[in-house]
């Protein structure tokens, strides 16, 4: 297992102060233009406006980039579920049973799992027979809403809970080959880009070259690292003198294994108490429905999904974006 303690510095806060120099007069009065402090105040506010405009543009561009990566990462699952649009395009009431059977098969192939698939299909069948759903587009919308509601209600705590005390410790666990070290490196990069100071600690003493791999990620991300080698510890900033309470215990699950990840999650949760999930390698899988199955079965929120090999390809999980990405 690999653990990742990190020190979190509070984000710097930019504040602005606006002072009204005089009250507005009730009648129009021509006043001479004053230079000096008023002029400097106007220049300052103008600069601040430009800064916030640029900041807003950068945030919007970053958000769009994240959404695009998520859509791209789930392309195989989306292709798998494209048959749903064909099924519903010419749907009529007399073909309800056949269409729902084919819909059930499409969901199972995408690893939604028997349990959640039956819930979805029976809910749609009930709404169709009661007259609530009268067209293919309404059925598609109801399908998306069902999945979104499930993810929102059972897995809504998707943000990392780091708190304000230092250090805030994140422990990364999972089976060999699941993507722990890679996910840790990407997570460290994301947190560092948000202004957090990171110290990695290699906790996997079993797998050959595990520490070496983590050192490479530390170098790539510019983070410090502590590696235990027998009785020796090497650390650029000295020994870690205090043990921090773990704020998050994240389980990394290989998305290509589909529903086979559920037994792993159950066992790890019993032993260490999982607070969140990282689903890796989803960009190479057509089994994106496993996200829904995991949340439905375990009630543990998915906090990040891996949708590529790059540093930026660990994306925060957002239920609405996910539903749009696989059903669009």
Topology:
Elements (H helix, E strand, L loop, with lengths): L1 E6 L29 H37 L1 H7 L1 H7 L6 H14 L4 H16 L6 H19 L13 E6 L6 H14 L3 E6 L7 H12 L2 E6 L2 E3 L11 E9 L6 H12 L3 E5 L9 H9 L3 E5 L7 E3 L2 H9 L1
Parallel strand pairs: 2-6, 3-4, 6-7, 7-8
Antiparallel strand pairs: 1-2, 1-3, 4-5, 8-9
Subcellular location: Membrane
Family: Belongs to the GTP-binding SRP family.
GO molecular function, one term: GTPase activity
Instruction: Sketch the major β-sheet.
Output: 9 strands, mixed
Question: What proportion of the residues form beta strands (DSSP E)?
Answer: 5-15%
Helix content: 40-55%
Give the number of domains: 2
Assign the CATH class of the largest domain.
Answer: Alpha Beta
Structure description:
The chain is built from 11 helices and 9 strands. With about 325 residues, it is α/β, with parallel strands linked by helices. The chain folds into 2 domains: about 75-155, Four Helix Bundle (Hemerythrin (Met), subunit A); about 170-320, P-loop containing nucleotide triphosphate hydrolases (Rossmann fold). It has a 9-stranded mixed sheet with strand order 5-4-3-1-2-6-7-8-9, sandwiched between helices. It is elongated. Keywords: GTP-binding, Membrane, Nucleotide-binding, Receptor.
């Amino acid at each position: 297992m690999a653990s990742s303690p990190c020190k979190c510095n509070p984000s710097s806060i930019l504040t602005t102060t606006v002072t009204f120099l005089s009250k507005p007069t009730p009648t129009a009065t021509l006043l001479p233009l004053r230079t000096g402090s008023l002029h400097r105040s106007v220049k300052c506010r103008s600069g601040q406006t430009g800064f916030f405009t640029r900041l807003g543009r950068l945030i919007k561009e970053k958000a769009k980039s994240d959404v695009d990566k998520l859509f791209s990462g789930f392309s195989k699952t989306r292709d798998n579920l494209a048959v749903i649009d064909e099924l519903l395009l010419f749907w009529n009431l007399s073909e309800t049973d056949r269409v729902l059977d084919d819909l059930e098969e499409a969901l199972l192939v995408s690893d939604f799992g028997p349990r959640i698939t039956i819930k979805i299909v029976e809910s749609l069948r009930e709404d169709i027979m009661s007259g609530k759903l009268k067209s293919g587009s309404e059925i598609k919308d109801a399908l998306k809403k069902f999945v979104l509601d499930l993810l929102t209600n059972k897995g809504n705590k998707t943000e990392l809970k780091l708190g304000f005390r230092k250090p805030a410790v994140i422990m990364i666990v999972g089976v060999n080959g699941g993507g722990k070290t890679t996910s840790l490196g990407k997570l460290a990069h994301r947190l560092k880009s948000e202004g957090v100071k990171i110290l990695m600690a290699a906790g996997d003493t079993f797998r050959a070259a595990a520490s070496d791999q983590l050192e490479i990620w530390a170098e790539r991300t510019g983070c410090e690292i502590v590696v235990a080698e027998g009785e020796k510890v090497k650390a650029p900033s000295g020994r870690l003198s205090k043990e921090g309470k773990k704020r998050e215990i994240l389980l990394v699950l290989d998305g290509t294994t589909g529903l086979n990840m559920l037994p792993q999650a159950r066992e790890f949760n019993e032993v260490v108490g999982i607070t969140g999930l990282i689903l890796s390698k989803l960009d190479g899988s057509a089994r994106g429905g496993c996200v829904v199955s995991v949340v439905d079965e375990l009630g543990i929120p998915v906090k990040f999904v891996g949708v590529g090999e790059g540093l930026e390809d660990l994306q925060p999980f957002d239920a609405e974006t996910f539903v749009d990405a696989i059903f669009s």
